[in-house]
Structures are given as C-alpha cells and as structure tokens.
Amino acid sequence: MPTALRSKGFIAVALLPALLLFLMFVIVPVFWSAYYGFFSWKGFGAASFIGLDNYREMFQDGIFWRALRNNLILVASSIIGQIPIALLLALLLLKNTLFSRFVRSAVFMPMVLSTVVVGLIWGYIYQTQFGLANTVLRMIGLESWTRAWLSDPQVNMLAISIPINWSNVGPYLVIFIAALQNISPEVDDAAKIDGAVGWRKLLYVTLPMIWGTVVVTLVLCISGSLKAFDHVIVMTGGGPARSTELLATYMYNSTFDVYRYGYGSAVSTMIILISALLIGINYILTRQKSG
Amino acid sequence: MKAKGKIGLLLLIVALLLSACGGESGEKAEGSKGKEEKVKLTIWHNFAGDDLRAKTVRSFIDQYKQDHPNVELDAQAIPPDGYRQRLSTVAAANEMPDLFFVYAGSHSSELYNAKLLQPVTEALDAHPEWRDKFLPGAFDAYKFEADQVYSVPLGMSATSILYYNTSLFEKYNVKVPTTWDEMMTAIKVFNENKITPIALGNKAPWVAQSTIIGSLADRVTGTDWFKNAVAQKDAKFTDPQFVEALGYFKELVDNKAFQEGANSIDNTQAEQYFIQGNAAMMISGAWTLTNLAASATEEQMKAIDVTVLPAIPGGKGDPNTITGGAGGGLALSSRTEGKAKEAALELIYAVSGPEAQKAIAESNSMVMYDTEIDQAKVTSLYYKAFNLVKKTGITPVYDAYLSADAADVINNGLQEIMMGGTPESVAQKVQDAQARSVTP
Predict the structure, then answer these.
(1) TM spans, by residue (chain A) (predicted)?
(2) Which residues pair with residue B305 across a beta bridge?
C-alpha cells in the first residue's frame, strides 16, 4: 500500500468534505433544534423563550408516553425478531449455492423497496374487507380471527411491527453473512477437532467470534426502531386516535400539523436523548457479556 | 477533432444566445419609447396542474395578457404542495408579487394581520351586476374590515354532501333519509342485508370531522353557538348541545353505520368502496365529484344521487345546509399602487369575473357564483351536486374556524369515539384545546 494513503494528513483531507457536510447537515441542526426546544415558536413570527416548559408539558402528555411505549414495543420486536431471524438465515444460507443466493436476494428485496411501497402493500394486506390477511383467515375457517388489523388498538402495534421487521431483516442478514465468512477456516477446523458441533459450536465458537457484529446490529436495531417513521406514517399516520403514535410521528404531528415548532424540536431532542440512553445501556450490557 | 468540434458548437450557442439577448433588449427599448410606459405586473397562483380547472384559470390569465399589450405580466404557476411555503418565504422578505392566490381562512387572515394585503372592493364595485351574483356568504371569509373585501373567491368548498346509491335504495326498498329516524332505519335495513350503510375512509382523521360532524353538529347547535364557542364567548364545547351532537355521531358508530376498519382506509379507498356498490351511502365533499369523474364510469355515476344530511329532531340549525365556504381567490399586495393597481384589479375581474366563474364551474369544480352551466360539458353527478348546492345554505367547516390545535384534537377525538370513547371526554378535550389557543 502506498505510504500516502497511510499518512494521517491524507486521511484527514480525504475525510474532510464528507465530514463538513455531515457537520453542516446533521450535527449543527441537532444542536440548533435543541436550542429551539426552549422556545414557544409557530414556525414564523417571534419565538418566545419559555425555558423547560416544553419538556414539562411533554412529560405530562399521555400521548408522549404512549408514543414512547409504542417505540419500545418496536425496539423489543426488532431485537427479538430481526436479529435472531437474520442470524438463523445467515447460518443456513452461508453456503454459496444457487438456492441460497436466491433466498438471500428474496430476503433482501423488501429493503430495496421504498418504505412507502412497503407501507402501501401491507396496508392492502391488512385491509379489513378485502385484505389478504383476513381473506386467508376466512378461507381456512378462522373467521373469528379476522380483525381490522390497523384500526383495532389491541393489535395494531403488533400488525405494524411485522412489516417493519420484514423489510429490515435483509441488511442484517448481509452483515451476518459477511461476519460469518470472515471467521477463518482454521477456527472451524479447530472447533471440529475439539468436537464442537451444532449448538455447542454456535454458542461457544461462532457467536463469540462475531460478537462485535452482533453488538453493532443491536445498536442499529435500537436506533433504527427509535427513529421509525415512514412505515407508520404511510400505514396509519399514527392513528386511529393516536394509538400507533411513535416518537417520530408525534414529533412530526406536533411540528407540522399543529405548527408548534418549538415543542416539536423539544420532542426530537428527547428522541436523541432516549436513543443515546438505550444505546448506552446496550453497550454496558453487551460488554459484560463478552467479558 | 472531437474536442474542437465541441468548442465550436459551444461558441455557436453562446453567439446565438448573445444575439438573442441583444434582440430582446432592443425591442424593450423600442417599447418604452412608445406613447405609454409598460405596466409591470406579477401574479403568483397555484393553478399549475393538468386538471381541467387549472387549465381553465390559466387560459383566462393568458387571455388577459393578449388583451392588454401594455401590461408586462409575469405569471408564475407554482404547484399547490409548495405554494404556501413559497409565499410565506417572500412574505417574510416583504417581496410579495402584486397579485397572489390566497386560501380562505387562517392563510389569508394571517397575511392580512401582517399588513400585506389591501382591499379589492373597487373591482367589485366597478361591476355591481357581477358582485351581486355571488352566493350569500361568498365574501364572509375575506371581510376583514366592514365594507372591505380582500379577495374574490375562485371556487367553493362543499364538504358534507350525502351521496347515495339509488339502485341499492330501490333494491331494498329504503326511503332516502330526510330525518334522523329514517337514517337509522336505512342503516338497520342495509346492515341486515350485509351492505355497508355509509362508506367512510377516516385514516387521515380530518375526514369524519370535515364531512360529518360539522354538518351534524350545526343541525343540533345552530351556527351562532358554534361561532361563539370558537371565540369562547358565552359558549363552550362542553355545553350539552355539543355533547349531544357528538352523541349522534356515536349513535352512527354504535349502529354500525360505517364499515369495519374505517379508521385505516383513506378517503379515496372509501370512494371506490362506495362506487362499486359495497356501501349505500357516503358523506363526502365536492372533491369526491372530481375523483369520481376521473375514476368511475358514467354508468356507475348515474346510479348515484346527492342530497343533504338528514334533519335532527329539535335541532336549532337549518337542516337544508351543507358545510363549506368560499374557496381561495386572488389577493392584492398592499404595496401595489397606481397604474399597476388598476391593471391588477382588471386582472382580478378577468380571472374571477362572470365568464371565468362559468368556465370554472364547467370544469367540474364548484363556484360561489350564481351561474348557468352547460349540462353537456360536465358529468351527470357533478350537475346534480351543482344544482343541490345552489339551493342549500352554507355552514362553517369546523377545522376552518377552530385553532389548529383544537382541530387536531377533534379529529382524533372522533376516531376515539369510533373506538369506544365517550362524547363527554372528547368534548372536554376540544374545549381545553380551543380555550388554550384563544387565551394563551
């Protein structure tokens, strides 16, 4: 490798354009929006400083807590759903046969679809009168199981989490396959000689070898679920009666539907704080495990 | 060789451009040398689409351009999605165009409060025969001061038309409801025959509010009560009459008037559900006329008729009404003066005058103007609705008057009632939200 590429100066220069863009369009707005969070502001006209009132109101608002609960349901469902399914599929599809390549692409496909398309497709699947879900249930004689999947507050969060998991398994599958392929064959051979096969090999050899990757996917899962927005806004818009509101849709509705830019900014700052907290907890927990 | 050729081409283009510019400036110089100086006028509007209505309005602007060679008109058609944002941006910089399209309600009143508008009453007074043919209440939304009108509506919104499928009503021998009892009977009969009584697509939660509760509540409470409650003067949304009105909505829900899952499909899907004969009725706005004109067959539309919502026993409001109001219109910038103002007022007449109103009405779009339309030019369903609206009174649409916050609360509150919530608790929340925005 040429030495120029290794020099720190060159790396810094090469990173600079991307870093500048990132600073300007991500980091600065984050602080800017945190600053707006202390104001009562309608988006135009004068903003008045109200200190922590927005946060006080948020903590007293039942919808904020419902949104947070819904978000935590999504986090749990994605950790329970996406990661184990992706890992299992990765283990099964590791071999580079035609069949496994086909299945891999099939699993990855929903990720390539626009989330709006995914939302619309599942909206039709869940449609009460003619939707696929209810039609199939009726065909196999489970008439009593049919539901207004997206309207019924008892089931709608669950119904929403399925397409979100479905469309997000793909990238984790690819990440896991890459991690598994990185395990050197010597380790495999050593494990075989030591008699580690099946579950034992998975638990004591494979998993520890890819633990770093698992931690990364956990972080991605948590932050991804906390900023989930597009599927929900397409499928239910946070309704009915705000029963599927997530933090991000709550922020969006407060800002752009009722024109409370200051309050919306406070909510988005809260989303960042909650994500940081959860990722921090995850970091501490997983570090203990691997140690 | 190739590169040289490209450079040559580039030079040629530059030369052409330069010569073109030169030519234009020469012409301009000549023009200004003429007897009178050209009047410069800018207009911004949102009739940018390919639909019949937008094309009609644009054609009148073009016509004005041709008829007034002394006016140098710069007309900008901005797509509706970004229109309000574009206008607020120039409003903040105080660089408003001379004429611009404004929406009725909070949009125009905010611009008025920011002192960006001036009255267009002169244009109306110059043509009294035109002014007097507007429907009652056409200027209400634009009368920010007594005797001064700030815009002339180019259209009308009618949000609570009761569409019904005549063949289903005939098939099950049901009377088209004119009273609440008849409505309940109709709902019962259709449910017994596995037909959805009323199609509703309330995923975007403004639908039930805009199309049903406004009209229903007005029949119970009367319009004066509502306006007082909005102003929070001598009336509150917790008053028994409003709770009663929400109770009627709950009665519809409890009697399964709407199809299951109404809160998870959108208005367009509900329209399709209705036009395909799965539902006997649908309560919707004039936009459904436009949507159906584009998606349904003439045969399907022939079976559909329109009327108003049924009367409520003992209600204070006039039952022969539809919620609605003036649509948007052109407004005049407060900075436009002299010759430009004269030209602008003429342009307002050209775009919203009698001929234009007739042409807009004939593009399957409601107007706030008493005009005769050629039946052959519009869909049969639109023709029926057009004649219905002419004969009915207009009552306020809730979200056009409530604060954004309270409108959001009532929208979600109606969904809550559909999921088992009580009218009392919803009424309380609406009251709280409206009180909060009236007395900050």
Answers:
(1) 12-35, 72-94, 106-125, 157-181, 202-226, 261-285
(2) B164
